[in-house]
């Protein structure tokens, strides 16, 4: 069927359904709101699915269900609610009502629960009511909504017709709840910090800028809640977390959305090693509670959906821990430790890799660029990369053993960064110097460099106890747990480029 013919057919169906709606309007209230359900489809399946046909007939259980008509075939139809699906039976009295229904209509049904000869539960149409008339035809029940872009732009249709999408977002909700419960059980307090900030801080990223009319000043959507959360630790809340929305004015890709969700948490009297231990245990616990297993499978597919490669991750096994420096040597046989530790030689290595080395970069920044080019995408198994150079870690505490690096880690799995954590810098004078270095970089044209946050320095001068903090990307974690290839698959309403 051509696109033009398909559009004409859809327009005809819409016109016919509008005529039905007009008839409902003339007859009275076309959008009633007095029906109340008392049962959900899956709850009925769970509670009565193992009963025999005879047992249910004898029990005479009356239920009220409501949902969207997904199938309507003469004697039987199917209603879908948020929990699942259940059949309804069209008796003789209900035939005119059932015949008037279109797929996608939302109905309320009260009747006796039965089981068919095939073992399927169904509700006999005793009382019934059309609650909302569907005007637009649903996608073909076999092909579903196959256009990926339309799935993202019209998520409401995707959720109606795509059980897999519904399961992904149900899993996402359980993951967030699992993380919240895990931290709350360990005396972390959930808090809320400003999303609209005078100074964007807590990460090196380009912010979104807006204007506050009453104050007549520019403000920023937060790029991270970090500096506010650490202010709370200064104030005496030793364990805090926030499941937060953050915003970064950067590109769109399968891994990046300008609006994203993180969990950030901070623990006083702890260091980055404590948080690596906590992260391992938390991810194992959440995976077991949500998925029922600690083994996760991720697949690589082509454009036709065929599996090209499959990876299995066992979160029960200890996660690998490797420094930035050692990981570069591990994955690059042609690089020596001596060369990587020398700024001039490291620059030459980077240039041979076609890395655009900037004049202002120090050895630490060059090493990170080599790491991102040659190592990051190869970190498939759960791995903590540690000892990030101080040059690229403006908020992390310097290592006592080697001040060139910090007590920091990033967590990788499936070739993607999922988390970033470190022992917090609590020396106010050191932090002020690093802020000033960031300002110099911003003045030199780096749009992602940090601002100088004088109030945060003031807070540190009151005293931040030894503290460790971490941020985990919820969207990427859900991608991992649901084997989703794109971040758009796990965000209900992802950012989309304008239609051409």
Automatic annotation (TrEMBL):
Reactions mediated catalytically: tRNA(Lys) + L-lysine + ATP = L-lysyl-tRNA(Lys) + AMP + diphosphate
Known EC number: 6.1.1.6
Keyword rRNA-binding found: no
Binding site for Mg(2+) 1: 410, 417
Cofactor: Mg(2+)
Chief location category: cytoplasm
Binding-site residues for Mg(2+) 2, renumbered to this chain: 417
Note on cofactor: Binds 3 Mg(2+) ions per subunit.
GO annotation terms (biological process): lysyl-tRNA aminoacylation
CDD domains for this protein: LysRS_core (cd00775), LysRS_N (cd04322)
Keyword Lipoprotein: no
UniProt keyword terms in alphabetical order: Aminoacyl-tRNA synthetase, ATP-binding, Cytoplasm, Ligase, Magnesium, Metal-binding, Nucleotide-binding, Protein biosynthesis
Region Disordered: start-end pairs: 1-30
Gene Ontology molecular function, alphabetical: ATP binding; lysine-tRNA ligase activity; magnesium ion binding; protein homodimerization activity; tRNA binding
Aminoacyl-transfer RNA synthetases class-II family profile domain: residues covered: 169-498
Subcellular location: Cytoplasm
PROSITE patterns (UniProt xref): AA_TRNA_LIGASE_II
One cellular component term from this protein's GO annotations in UniProt: cytosol
Quaternary structure and interacting proteins, as annotated: Homodimer.
HAMAP family: Lys_tRNA_synth_class2
Family: Belongs to the class-II aminoacyl-tRNA synthetase family.
UniProt name for this protein: Lysine--tRNA ligase
Organism of origin: Amphritea japonica ATCC BAA-1530
